[in-house]
Amino acid sequence: MSLQQHRAEFPYLAGKAYFNYGGQGTMPRSAIAALQDANIRFQELGPFSSAANSWIVQEGNLTRAAIAKELGTTADTITLTEDVSVGCNIALWGIDWQAGDHILLTDCEHQGIVAAVQELQRRFDLEVSVCPLLETLNSGDPSAIVEQFLQPNTRLFVVSHILWNTGQVLPLQEMVEICHARSVQVLVDAAQSVGVLPLNLTELNADFYAFTGHKWWCGAAGVGALYVRPEARETLHPTFIGWRSVITDAKGTPECFQSDGRAFEIATSAIPLYPALREAIAFHQPFAETRYSMICDRSAYLWQRLKALPNVKCLKTSAPASGLVSFQLENGKHPQLVQYLEARNFFLRVILNPNCVRACVHYFTTEEEIDALAHAIEEFL
């Protein structure tokens, strides 16, 4: 199948130029069909029946296995969640915090994760500090800055693999090694990296890696996952607990938690989302080997087109190494630009810190779309 034929399998890209994959991807036809078929199948089984329960267990097993295979790990390390924030919260609240423990954040983390850390700080009397990685976008050594900001009482470093605001790809493996040498665990917000970067989570060795299926994987919203390194799972405690978390005796009394990633799953979920996610993952396989380089090629092309426009400044001074291209207008009219573009079927978003507009390109984004976007921005200016 050619790339053009492949792209045509996204029925709802027709008539629009979509640059919001970092927020939510559009679904391919096969994933939409899988979602519809699974909803029908669930009703046919009788939603609360032994047959339906067996189907639910099977779907969970198949989905953990598919995610694990895609990310270079094993199914026992995968916890199915709803989204990135749920995955991050499982890790954040599962650590046995003591008063005076220290959490290190970067200055580029998503507000939802920052708010969770602030609440942990309030409840457990923790110390929290922020290391300045935004300033390393175009020069500097982010790993050295992280090492500088670690403290003797640091328990956890919270970081994004790809920064959601600027698109910077961080040297995560190096950061993990630095932290582990100081007995510091690492929680990764992987919202922008899964589906973009070639990943092997076993080799990466981060303790917690939280991601979602509805962004760059182009699955349905409402299903994601958390990778927990086996060594980290030994000391991570479930916070929200339900029937999926536990093993019961013959009388239904809880005896212990599941010994794998299921220990952090809770109860009822929208199971039809699972086969839809697997179909979305499988859909990208024909371009698995070249996907990342294709994303970078398209990102570089967009960066070049924007850089050539008057009164437009790209945050990166060189072509981005991800699908995120953030830029600013000299007049600062970023919300107005996004509204203007959306009225013309170009979809981008505003980022507040740093104040900019973010455009996302996928491997199937076309040069024609990018040219049309650049022309529309020029018309607005």
Automatic annotation (TrEMBL):
Domain Aminotransferase class V: from-to ranges: 58-373
GO molecular function ontology, one term from the record: lyase activity
Transmembrane residue ranges: none
Keyword Kinase in annotation: no
Pfam families (UniProt xref): Aminotran_5
Keywords from the named record: Lyase
InterPro entries linked: Aminotrans_V_dom, PyrdxlP-dep_Trfase, PyrdxlP-dep_Trfase_major, PyrdxlP-dep_Trfase_small
UniProt KW Lyase keyword: yes
Name of the protein in its database record: Selenocysteine lyase
